[in-house]
Amino acid sequence: MLDVNGGTLPDQIYARMVEAILRGDYVDSKKLPTESELASQFGVSRPTVREALSRLRSDGIIESRRGSGSQVVRAPGTPASSMPSIRNYSDIERYYAYRTVVESGAAAAAAEFRTADDLTTIRACLEAQTLAMESGNKGIEDDIRFHRAIARASHNQFFVAAVETSVAPIRQFMELARSVRSKMTVERVRLVRMEHQQILDSIEKRSPADAAEATRLHILNAKRRIFDAAKLR
Description:
Layout lengths: L8 H15 L11 H8 L3 H13 L3 E4 L3 E4 L16 H25 L2 H19 L5 H14 L3 H9 L1 H14 L5 H19 L3 H23 L3
Helix pairs in contact: 1-3, 1-7, 2-3, 4-6, 4-7, 4-9, 4-10, 5-6, 5-9, 6-7, 8-10, 9-10
Organism: Variovorax soli
GO molecular function, one term: DNA binding
Keywords: DNA-binding, Transcription, Transcription regulation
């Protein structure tokens, strides 16, 4: 419900959309509902929604294309190029140190605040990734969805935004590692599955410390696999 004392209607729609984007409501497809759907959702006119969307476009948060609708291009409050480029070995070390802190924190928060629906989503992402890898596919997007789902389960928009800005390097490194190997070995599939399962189990039993530690170990192992694959060590 909109707040009659919360500013103009477009301002309130804008604020609600920013909250939804930071919460990760549109993370998987990045596509926003249509103007008509948003108008119905918020109980306002299409011109009101259009004005809020115009402001989101002006802020560089969404892009709109005729015939394709609007989609999220970056998290609110983050610069368009918020993740520094990775240029050398030391940058890789720094990136994984950053990722370890952020994602361990997100997993700990997820263990504390997750819902039954969050667990269902995380579990589905894990199953999809395992199936993809067992079928000989890279499963990169399913892996990324797994980590995004954990961030969303934290119900903390700052963790969601931080993990979202980390997606490009995650994808880059996973592509690097898996381009070296034409197919994931059975042992590698088993290890990745086990590491992810330990994170999920800790979140399910509401153990923030265990969830943070399982995530820390998984990310450290992921870094090691990157170095092994690229023969950087």
